[in-house]
Amino acid sequence: MPTTLHIASRLHVTPLLSIHHPLFEKLYENGLYWSLFRERHTRPMTDRYMLKNVRESLNNTDVDGQQGFWLPLIGFHFGRLHGAILSAQTGQPCPDVTALARFENDYARRGYDVGREWYFVESLLEQPDARTSTDSSLLERLQEIERESVYFHDTEDTWYYALGCILGELSGQLFPATAEECARWETDRRFWNAEAERTTRREANTEPLPTRLQEEA
Hints:
Layout: E1 5-8, E2 11-13, H1 22-37, H2 47-64, H3 73-83, H4 106-126, H5 135-148, H6 155-171, H7 179-206
Antiparallel strand pairs: 1-2
Helix pairs in contact: 1-3, 2-3, 2-6, 4-6, 5-6
C-alpha cells in the first residue's frame, strides 16, 4: 500500500502509487504542495498538461542521459495532478471533483474509462496484486510507451489514449466505480461476449467438410 506523505502541518496525503525512491517521493510531495497551496485556480489538471510535461521529461532523459533528475521529475507532475483535486484542509478529493484530470482529448477520455474498467473489473479477475502501481513500474511503463511511439501511426492520439489508461487505473483508489460505469461495463462485456460467440459459430460453419477417402474395390 502507498505510504502516507506529510505535506503540511496536520495534513497527510496517500499518494496515487507506492513510492520507493526518495527523489521521486520528494518531487511528488513538491507537486502536491504546489497544487494545494500555490495554484488552486488550476484544479483539476488537464490531460494536455500531463502529456506535454511527461513526454518532455522522457525526451530530456533521452537527450542528456540525466535520469537522476529528469525521470523522477515525472513524480512532480503526478504529484501536482493529484494535489490539484484535493482539499487543502482535508487532503481528500474536493466534493465537486469526480475525475483525476480534466479531459480535453477524446482518446485520453476513452483510455481513462478503459483504465478504470481494468482496475475495478479485469484486475480483480486476473491480477489483483497489480492494482497498486509503484514509481518504478510507472516510469518503466512510460519509457516503454515512449520507445514504442516511433511505431505509432497517430503518435499523439495513441499517447493520449495510453496516458488516459494510466490515469484511469490510478483514479481507482480515489473515485469508486459509479453505478453508471458498472452498467456500461456490463453492457459492453455482454456485447463483446456475444460477438465472440457469433464469430466462433461463423468460423465453425465455414470450415470445410472432412474429405472421405474411399478405397477402390
